[in-house]
Write a structure and sequence with these properties.
Blueprint lengths: L2 H35 L4 H30 L9 H18 L7 H27 L9 H37 L2 H26 L15 H9 L2 H22 L1 H8 L4 H25 L4 H21 L4 H37 L4 H5 L1 H23 L14 H29 L4 H14 L8
Length: 460
């Protein structure tokens, strides 16, 4: 890897630390804030659960249109950076508003929640599509992409697990000083979005794109937008596999706080558990390039799925003892880390496949399926969590685990572990039988694109 690529790898990857801190705060802890801090009544929680699902699905459907706008952007800063910068600033503002309580309740709160959620989803989408669709423009070599992608995922997981590990103890500590956990969440949200702005500045000002490598293409029409997605069969199969995985993954992680409060009956152990698993995932992502040199992606995906299955089974059968639960979590989240990175690489390769098959590159339209899937996965996962939290009696327990019945705990544990296991296995089955882009086909595609003049002969 040359100096310029190493520089891009660093500046590109650092940008996602704050982004994922911000995303994790909203996707994993907004429900906790609504139920455990604001203590909203069940009627309002049903509304917020439904609104979250509806807005995410609506915005997810609009993500390809956002990718269309990014692909058609032409500025002296390129087409990705303006969206990263503007989307980052605006989504940061709406993140803070989520955790700003001015006393509104009932219909007024529901309306304000809907508006903020819609604006947050749209602005974060522009940022997210701009960020990840920049990755394929940094290199066309699969191994180089894996190195950049693995480093970016490491930084993303650092941001995720900093938030997961720190948010509950930090908000409690701030709340003890200021007199309330509402203030704790507000101050934490402000701190996180400041970090997000700082880390994304590294990407905006530090990354140097190799725009001269790719043929200058005409703007994409709306008709070509639909063609770029629905005529790219490998993209569609990747989309289905990713959706199944993300629904399962998001459902499991979103139940984490509730599991340790109501099943394990020790909220403080959640941060310890998250720290152990965070280190496990970071190690997994760090060693991924080592394993990718020795095994095919299909072999790695199979091994990772087996690890996830083993982890889920042990976790479900484990007694309420951190030794057993921690041991179950390690293969579960190591396997999930591998699958997340593999999904990113599969998606990246479908760009050249689409260019080869359809005649246009369309990075951002292709990568718009990633936030689309994340939102659908998050929407369905959060809807499952929201519904189970209400039906199991957890929302009415007001933080007291003794008020939740054994049947309620069984309902939560099944939704957290059994349903996601089935979905993740189905995701692998779709990949195994329908995804065809291996190293040989990819190398052949690149050779054809160079021969056609769509990619420069000396591109790396």
């Amino acid at each position: 890897m040359d100096k310029a690529t190493s520089r891009n790898r660093f500046f590109y990857s650092v940008g996602t630390i704050g982004r994922d801190m911000q995303y994790t705060l909203v996707s994993m802890f907004l429900n906790v804030y609504l139920t455990e801090v604001l203590n909203l009544p069940d009627q309002t929680l049903w509304w917020t659960t439904g609104i979250t699902l509806a807005v995410r699905v609506y915005d997810a459907v609009n993500d390809p249109l956002m990718g269309f706008f990014v692909d058609n952007t032409k500025t002296r800063f390129g087409k990705f950076k303006p969206w990263i910068a503007i989307g980052g600033i605006l989504s940061a503002l709406f993140t803070v508003l989520f955790f700003t309580d001015i006393g509104w309740r009932g219909t007024t709160y529901i309306i304000s929640f809907t508006v903020i959620y819609l604006l947050w989803e749209v602005t974060f989408s522009g940022n997210d599509i701009g960020y990840w669709s920049m990755l394929p423009s940094l290199s066309i070599d699969q191994k180089t992409r894996e190195k950049i992608g693995s480093t970016a995922r490491i930084c993303a997981n650092i941001g995720l697990f900093i938030t997961v590990v720190a948010i509950l103890p930090v908000t409690s500590a701030i709340g003890n000083v200021t007199g309330g956990r509402k203030t704790g969440f507000f101050i934490a949200a402000v701190g996180i979005v400041v970090i997000s702005m700082i880390t994304q500045a590294f990407t905006v000002f530090g990354v140097k794109e190799h725009r001269e490598v790719f043929k200058q293409e005409s703007k994409t029409s709306l008709r070509e937008l639909m063609r770029a997605i629905f005529k790219n069969d490998q993209l569609l199969f990747t989309l289905v596999s990713m959706a199944l995985f993300m629904i399962g993954y998001t459902t499991t992680t979103s139940f984490g706080t509730y599991f340790f409060i109501y099943a394990y009956k020790d909220e403080g152990m959640y941060s310890i558990f998250a720290a152990i698993l965070g280190v496990s995932q970071l190690v997994a992502l760090s060693v991924f390039p080592f394993f990718s040199k020795r095994f095919s992606r299909k072999q790695l995906y199979l091994a990772a799925t087996i690890m996830v299955v083993v982890g889920y089974v042990i976790f479900f059968l484990a007694p309420m003892n951190m030794l057993f639960i921690g041991a179950a979590g390690i293969p579960l989240f190591v396997g999930q880390a591998f699958i997340q990175l593999l999904m990113l690489m599969f998606l990246t390769d479908t760009i050249e496949y689409g260019q080869w098959k359809l005649g246009k590159r369309n990075e951002s339209i292709t990568f718009s399926v990633q936030p689309f899937i994340n939102k659908i996965g998050g929407a369905v996962g959060n809807a499952i969590v929201g519904a189970v939290v209400i039906m199991s009696g957890i929302s009415a327990a007001d933080g007291d685990p003794e008020k939740v019945t054994e049947a309620g705990l069984w309902m939560m544990k099944s939704a957290m572990l059994i349903v996601p296991l089935i979905l993740i296995v189905l995701g692998f089955i779709v990949y195994k039988f329908f995804f065809k882009i291996d190293k040989e086909l990819y190398d052949s595609i690149i050779s054809d694109l160079k021969a056609r003049g769509d990619i420069a002969e000396d591109a790396k």
